[in-house]
Structures are given as C-alpha cells and as structure tokens.
Write a structure and sequence with these properties.
Arc Repressor Mutant, subunit A, about 20% strand, homodimer, seven-stranded mixed β-sheet, 8 helices, DNA-binding, globular, about 45% helix, Rossmann fold, three-stranded antiparallel β-sheet, about 210 residues, 2 domains, alpha/beta
DNA sequence: TAGATTGTTAATCGATTAACAATC
DNA sequence: TAGATTGTTAATCGATTAACAATC
C-alpha cells in the first residue's frame, strides 16, 4: 500500500523507535518530546521530527508526542498488526535459537512450521512445533500457506531451496545463510543477516580506536 | 592507528567486499575490473573505485584489480591479521550457535572462553571449549587477557556484566542482548546486533510491496 | 496569555554518481 | 600503439541539521 516516498534510512530507524517507545510505555511515560527522545536514543530532535513527519502529524505543538499513540502508529506503518505465517528451514543451533528466542508475534509474524533434512533432528520439537522432514514442504505449504521463511540452511542449498520456496508461495525471506540473497523476482522481500560481516566490522572497530 | 577520514558507509561495505573477493579468488579469478565487481555485488563501478581509493591505489589502469592482492589489503585495513582473544557470555542456543558456526579466525578473533550462570550448562563443552561458571571470570581474565566479548545474556544482566567486563579489560563487545549497548567510556568498540529489529524491517518489506 | 514544542522550510553536510584525463 | 580501466575531480543527489513561524 503506502509505497510513497519513505526513504530507506527512515525505515531502518523505525523498528528502533518502536522498541524504545515500547520501553518508555512500560516505564509509565505518557508523553515525550522530540528533544527528550533524541537524548535517550542518541539522535537529534530535528531528525526525529523529520522522521515522524514522513507519515503524518503525530505530535502536538507545545506538548510533544503521546507515547502509546505514536508507538501504535509506527507499529501500523511497519505492518505489525498482521501476523504473517512463517516457516523455518534448518533446525540447527541457529534455527533453534531463533525459533525459541525471537518474539515473532511482536514483529509481525507467526512461526507455523520447522523443517530440516537431517534424520536425527526430524521428529524433535522446538517449543510446541514439531520438526518436519523438508521433503513434506509441498504438502505443508498447500495446507498452511506460509508467506515468509527463515533460511538457516547450508550455503550450498540456499539457492535451490529459495527457488522452491518461491514456487510454493513464499514472498519474504529472513536469510542467515552465508551468502547475499538477491532475488530477481519482483515482489519478494529479503532481509539478509550476515553475522560474519558484523563481527568483521567489530574487528575494524578495535583496530581504529588506537 | 589509521583514524583518517574513512567514512562509516565505506567501512560497512568492507566486510562484504572482503567476502566477495574471497569467493572470486576461490573460483580462480586473478583480476577483476570495478565494472565487473559492481555487477556481481549490485553496486556501481564508481562507488567501488571511490571506496578503494580511500586507502591508496590498489588497482592498475587498463587492467583492473588483482583479486588476492586487493583482498589481503582490505583484510589488513579490517585488522584481520590480529586474532583478538574473545570470550562468550551466555551459552544458550544463540551463544552455542555463534560459538560453533562463526569462523572467528577469518574475522580477526579467537574464541578462548565460554561462560554461563546456569548449573545445568556449566561443565559442558562447545567444540573443544569447556563452559565455565561466570563467577570465575576474574581469574580467567587475569590469566588469559581476552579483549573482546560476545553478549548472549539476558537483557537484565547486560548492563552489570558490561561494566564488569570493562573493568576486566574487555575493549570490544558483540552485543546480542535485547537492548542498545552504548558505552560512554572512550576506547570501547560496540557492534549491536538486534535480530528483532531485523525481522521487524522484513515485516515492513512485505507490507510495502503492494 | 506565555511557554513549550511541533511541523516545515531552508541550509548544510555527506555520499553517490558521472565524467574524463592519466596511464598501464 | 590502441584499448581498457583506473584515479580523481566535478555534479548530483539525498539525508541530516538548523531555524523559526505556527499552534497547542
């Protein structure tokens, strides 16, 4: 829907705003000014006001922003009222960690299935979801229509499984494999998480301190 | 050392360059032009040349860049020839995943110790490293002098443990806890990985496709 | 009303892209 | 030499910051 001109830089900041506002709300804040929020988040007040004005007028002159109102507006923009059904491919340590620790509900998703190829793992459970054989993916998708997938599989299988998943109706990928997923198909969303690159950046950070 | 004017945007791209060049090298590439690399990475040739010129002249007119030479130069800039001793705090699923799947050696680090507070976990092993009781951190640091730490502990303990670790000589944090670590102390490097924010961004990506 | 703080425009800053002379 | 491709400067684009009138 809103494909208007919200820049990528702004969007990347929205989840963090949403998170901070949630914490403020939990701590009993009712209102907050751009100046105060800027201080807490390490941004400038100007930037915060510019950001929030991309999608309408949420504040009130002389008062500031209503914390819970603003938070729920940002939640709507992020699409968090939908709970997109999501599956996990690869139930190794990382897949297991994500399945058990990520708060899918509050991020706009619901984890509905877990798949792996290794016989020792298949049949086990993570939370209350049973790990299925990846060969039953077709039947599962026909029945449950998941729309998003987490990729925690070996690099070598990523490309093949991605094609398969797209054929099965998956439109969004949270990619943890060791390569950059770039899908040519239009209408597919991809979020690459490259943990190795993140650690490498930290290495530079150490070196450049003196 | 080189605290010159390498912008943050460039630095964020370096690990990815390093990775792509490694793959090219593995595939037998000896030379590559900025145009060809741009195509493979989804960047512009101009940007690549600008980026590489931040730290000297690595290419050769009429020829392009030597793949392995360029890669090792970027490796030096990133500080990957050092193997900074690193410890892991928190050996739950996520900590376990990182300890077993991350290629520390190629990212400028060496994992030298793992700590947890839970009696059921302490004494176990991940790879060939024994999980220690977090109470022996002081002795361990006095002996092994780790300089970096991975935080995979509950949010509630993050602030306290961070202070403790800084006192023990840790100068770099790879932070997976559910809050933004901002260290006031000068001379501390932090890389926050907020997986929840990443997933939230994907939610927006789905919604904004139409 | 007076004080505070937004919404918004204008100014600045930085990053990306385009262009081309230098040179291998 | 001719062709290719860099290194680098100039032009463009976008994002951040500053400023202030509008208004609660």
């Amino acid at each position: 829907m809103s494909k208007s001109a919200i820049s990528n830089s702004v969007i990347r900041r929205l989840p963090r705003y949403y998170r901070f506002l949630g914490e403020l709300e939990a701590n009993g804040y009712v209102r907050i000014s751009s100046r105060e929020l800027a201080e807490k988040m390490g941004l400038t007040a100007s930037q915060i006001r510019q950001d929030f004005n991309c999608f309408g007028e949420f504040g009130q002159q002389g008062y500031g922003y209503n914390v819970s109102g603003l938070r729920s507006e940002i939640g709507k923009i992020l699409g968090l009222e939908c709970k997109t059904p999501m599956i996990l491919l690869g139930a190794g340590n990382l897949g297991r960690a994500l399945a058990s620790h990520i708060d899918f509900q509050n991020r706009g998703f619901e984890l509905v299935g877990i798949f792996d190829a290794s016989p020792e793992i298949i049949g086990g459970k993570i939370g209350d979801i049973t790990i299925n054989d990846i060969s039953v993916l077709e039947e599962f998708c026909a029945e449950h229509h998941p729309q998003a997938a987490i990729l925690c599989i070996p690099k070598t299988e990523a490309s093949r499984e991605t094609d398969r998943l797209i054929r099965l109706g998956i439109r969004a990928f949270w990619n943890f494999t060791h390569y950059d997923l770039r899908v040519d198909h239009k209408g597919i969303a991809v979020e690459n998480v490259h943990l190795g690159d993140s650690l490498t950046t930290l290495s530079y950070g150490i070196k450049s301190m003196d």
